[in-house]
Amino acid sequence: MAARTWLQGAFYHLCQWLLLGPVLALTRTRYFGVPDIGAVRSGLLIASNHQSFLDPVLVGVSLVRPISYLARRSLFRIHGLNALLRAVRTHPVRRGGVDRAALRTVRRLLAGGEAILIFPEGTRTADGSLGRFKPGVASLAIRHGVPVLPVCIEGAFACWPRTQVLPRPGRVAVAYGRLLDPTGKAPDELTQLVRDEIERLRESLRDYLVR
What we know:
Helix content is 41%, strand content 15%. The protein has helices at residues 2-27, 55-60, 81-87, 100-111, 136-144, 156-159, 187-209, and strands at 30-32, 44-48, 69-72, 90-93, 115-118, 148-154, 173-176. The strands form 2 sheets. The protein has a 5-stranded mixed β-sheet. Helix 3 (81-87) links the parallel strand 3 (69-72) and strand 4 (90-93).
């Protein structure tokens, strides 16, 4: 078991290293406030806005600590992609409705001290704006007593909007916000705090990208 865990970690970091160069070359991504999430001893929910297919990679390559991901179940039916997704700590989730199996997986990961990237909007933006944030992230954070780390991605929509088959070169910025403690907060309150923090980060990234 220990050997398998070590191999999974080594493969994750290999993929991270292989993706870093091409992604940075394509997007010229600049990172702001990258945290040492290894210092967070509990589970952790990383909540990001969702602009493109690049988003999981843009977040993942900047963090030394391996994180887990969620992806729509249909991707796991593609030949050869299923094994790769699972090897890089990606777990299937059914879009629409309540996926109880996915919820059990998330709860197990958080209880084990894992960090999980989740997109509160649920899907990629259609026009680059922030969509409605669903309360799932906040509910999980409150139930398990784990902090939420807001992340904002700006510029990725221009690189790879959902209407485009392949990405194009662009300029992207990613900023990490302050850790939000769920203690004593209601789901709606925490959801709004996450959104407000991402909005705040977004304004600063827009200023940076227009320079």
